Amino acid sequence: MSTVLAARSLQPAAPKAGAPLILGIGGTLRPTSSSERALTACLEAVREAGGRTISLVGRDLDLPPYEPGARLDARAQRLVDAFRQCDGLVISCPSYHGGIPGLLKNAIDYTEEMARDERPYLVGRPVGLIVCAAGWQGVGTTLAGLRSIVHALRGWPTPLGAGLNTADRDPRYRSSFTDKESWQLGEVARDIVDFAAARRMHRAMPDPVRAAMGVV
Questions:
Q1: Residue 169 has what pLDDT?
Q2: CATH for 3-212?
């Protein structure tokens, strides 16, 4: 991703009053990787579904190994701020030897900065998962690993995880997606926006027990 594109992607797209803010992270250090393109397409679908988006990819996630208690540099602080502000996430991940690459896992580890927040880790946030791999085995094992991580962070993985098999890809779809892949990415996006919007509405409602007790 170019510097210009990366800077633009950090701004919420098409802001709408009260719309859920969805953070997308993923990709690799290689610009326009399959996982970055999948993330871009999914975030576009998020906006079409009524959400706002922030995207941090590739070099944006090239951070020092997470160290609890260490002072955060500007890029790490930007990531943690985005985690805190978002109503939901999309994580788009390549499969490296059947697992999650260190670049992305390290970025996720920065959620430890939120351990003592009022809303810690990924509590109450829907998380859409996308895996790109050269074979279905890598898709399956990496997707399962991501789901376990999201559960450990108390997030809510969407029912559908998008799996894109890049092996022996039809030349017609080298830089785009098949109808089935596009449907998966769109379904993940719609699930995130629907869940995040419902959670925002729920949080805005008064607690009936507190209201009955006269506690504001």
A1: 72
A2: 3.40.50.360
